[in-house]
């Protein structure tokens, strides 16, 4: 008689291709979008967000959404346009960056798809701050991102701009690329975000923004 040996439990989940796991997660998440109730949201885990985004939020020490985040994130996930207004420090940046990541994740975006998200900020400082937050909460995603602002190497930006999935930029620099970067394409753009839109106009960028929008699909 052979001694008793505990039967090994086979891990069938390990055999499931990664793309199937992602597809399943996306299907489960999108089914929950219409059920989002801002009043019942206490933590970011209460939103139907991808595990990669949730991991990024935890790593960056973001736990509890602010009022603007509770109200805006669900609407953005459902694909609606948003005009948001809130005080400085209220969390507007995270309110649009989370839907940005989820939008590309849901679309299974890759570097071959090119530019998917365009975020325009009125100043270099604000663009830099937005880019830093994006890097923190998006660190577990595979998307490429670039900070496109004046004062940096234009040629270097031109070489990588079409391989970038998310661009955070200032109006003047973006328009310069439309004028001088011959292969710069926005034909696959999924989302346009104008951060501090009122301030952008107050700073005299109205004509620049008109020119930018005219170059978008």
Automatic annotation (TrEMBL):
Span of domain Helicase ATP-binding: 73-217
Motif Q motif: positions: 42-70
CDD domains registered for this protein in UniProt: DEADc_DDX10 (cd17941)
Keywords: ATP-binding, Helicase, Hydrolase, Nucleotide-binding, RNA-binding
Keyword Plastid: no
Catalytic activity annotation: ATP + H2O = ADP + phosphate + H(+)
InterPro entries xref list: DEAD/DEAH_box_helicase_dom (IPR011545), Helicase_ATP-bd (IPR014001), P-loop_NTPase (IPR027417), RNA-helicase_DEAD-box_CS (IPR000629), RNA_helicase_DEAD_Q_motif (IPR014014)
DEAD-box RNA helicase Q domain location: 42-70
Key word Aminoacyl-tRNA synthetase present: no
Task of the protein: RNA helicase.
UniProt remark on domains: The Q motif is unique to and characteristic of the DEAD box family of RNA helicases and controls ATP binding and hydrolysis.
Family statement: Belongs to the DEAD box helicase family.
Name used for this protein in its record: ATP-dependent RNA helicase
Source species of the chain: Rotaria magnacalcarata
């Amino acid at each position: 008689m052979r001694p008793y040996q505990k039967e090994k439990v086979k891990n069938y989940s390990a055999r499931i291709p990664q793309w199937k796991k992602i597809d399943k997660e996306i299907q489960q998440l999108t089914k929950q979008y219409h059920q989002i109730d801002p009043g019942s949201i206490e933590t970011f885990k209460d939103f139907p967000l991808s595990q990669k985004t949730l991991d990024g939020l935890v790593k960056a020490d973001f736990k509890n959404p602010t009022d603007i985040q509770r109200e805006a994130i669900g609407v953005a996930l459902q694909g609606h346009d948003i005009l948001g207004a809130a005080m400085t420090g209220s969390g507007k940046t995270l309110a649009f960056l989370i839907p940005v990541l989820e939008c590309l994740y849901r679309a299974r975006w890759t570097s071959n798809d090119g530019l998917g998200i365009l975020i325009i900020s009125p100043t270099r400082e604000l663009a830099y701050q937005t880019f830093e937050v994006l890097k923190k909460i998006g660190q577990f995603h595979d998307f490429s991102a670039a900070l496109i602002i004046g004062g940096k190497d234009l040629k270097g930006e031109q070489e990588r701009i079409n391989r970038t999935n998310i661009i955070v930029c200032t109006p003047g620099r973006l328009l310069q690329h439309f004028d001088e970067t011959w292969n710069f394409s926005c034909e696959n753009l999924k989302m346009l975000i104008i951060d501090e839109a009122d301030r952008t106009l107050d700073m005299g960028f109205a004509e620049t923004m008109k020119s930018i929008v005219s170059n978008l699909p």
